[in-house]
Amino acid sequence: MSTRDEILTHVRRHGSASRPELQTALGMSRPVVAAVVRGLLAEELLTEHQGENRGGRGRPGRRLRPRYPAGAVVGADVSHRHLTVAAATLDLTVRAERRVAIDVDTRPTAALDVTADMIRQTVQEVRLTVDGPVNACVVGIPGPLDMSKRAIASPTILSSWSGLDLAAELGSRTGLTVSLDNDANLGALAEHRHGAADNRGNLIYVKASDGIGAGLIVHGIPVSGSFGAAGEIGHTQVIPDGDWCRCGNRGCLETIVSVRQVLQQIQHFYPGDADLRSRLPEIAHHPVARKILAESGRTLGRVLANLCALLDPAAVIIGGEMSQAGEAFVDGVRDSIERLAQPGFDNRVLVAASALGTRAELIGSLTLARDIALRDGARRPEG
Ligand SMILES: [Zn+2]
């Protein structure tokens, strides 16, 4: 990466930066930073603002902010039960958003058609208020994707979409260039750039909803593995000879900790209440629900403790629907990680609920779409 691209990428990633911050973060000399920034200001890719004097001493420094090209990007989050599509300008301000219930698992072709329809409608809506092209579209999928990121990599998970060239199918239906990524990877990207992980270089993000998947970031780079299945921790075995899992094995983490399983246990204390799922944050205060959530958190934490021993992350961020279940669940995760960590290593890793909540995957899809748009040459700043 050239010096110019390094500086531009840093300011875009962090939202703003001062010249001294650039020198420190990128290990560049003052004259180099000054010269490159002068060029980027002349190209109108950066703007300069007076910073706030937070410390109350000395003169506030001047801050550089990114200026984005015209146009929009589209992101979509496909879950086992819902589809959310949003379009945003390149500063990631959402200008159009739609959400519907879908059934990917049993009605695959219909789900594909609905996804394409929703993308088309969202694009139409954003074109009413945003000038410039729709530059990129990223769709997050709740399953492992093969290396070329075009198809489901597992014959058992999301099997109804297995073998389909999903990017091509959606591309031909929408007229856009569509890229795919795993949903937990997108959640990790969003939390890394905009959320609770705050640009920490090594991060484990867990999407805990109907499935359990992890997105890994190592040295600031998302890791998808040799075969696209890195972070599929939902299918690590925690109970030998336990219940059968949808993946074809027995006793997987998902058979114990998914939101469906946890709600089934809590249901005993709310007989006749058919809609516990939408009230999860509220019922999490029930004393028995708290115990169940804490125990589920500790089970997830035992698997994550092993992952922490392997990767030594700075942060473990818990997202998905289970992150909405109050503090008990995340406290349980933290409890196991701290209890099982090696002596001297405890308390260093941040274990926290997602700052972006159930929107992390959607924001991640928009963030990756913007990265693709900027990489592919959407360089001219907005009028
Ligand atoms: Zn499984």
Quickly describe the structure.
This protein is α/β, with parallel strands linked by helices. It is built from twelve helices and 13 strands.
Description:
The chain is an alpha/beta fold. It has 3 domains: 3-66, Orthogonal Bundle (Arc Repressor Mutant, subunit A), CATH 1.10.10; 72-185 and 361-375, ATPase, nucleotide binding domain (Nucleotidyltransferase, domain 5), CATH 3.30.420; 198-355, Nucleotidyltransferase, domain 5 (2-Layer Sandwich). The protein is 38% helix and 19% strand. The protein contains 12 helices and 13 strands. A 5-stranded mixed sheet has the order 6-5-4-7-8, sandwiched between helices. A 5-stranded mixed sheet has the order 11-10-9-12-13, sandwiched between helices. A 3-stranded antiparallel sheet has the order 1-3-2. Strand 12 (315-319), helix 11 (326-340) and strand 13 (350-353) form a beta-alpha-beta unit. The chain is globular, with a radius of gyration of 22 Å. The two termini are 27 Å apart. The mean pLDDT is 88. Bound molecules: zinc ion. Zinc ion binds at residues 235, 245, 247, 249, 252, 254. Residues 235, 245, 247, 249, 252, 254 line the site of zinc ion.
Q: Strand order across the biggest sheet?
A: 6-5-4-7-8
What bound compounds does this protein have?
Answer: zinc ion
CATH superfamily descriptor of the largest domain:
ATPase, nucleotide binding domain
Mean pLDDT figure: 88
Strand content: 15-25%
Helical residue percent band: 25-40%
> Using only CA atoms, what is the Rg?
22 Å
CATH topology of the largest domain: Nucleotidyltransferase, domain 5
How many beta-strand segments?
Answer: 13
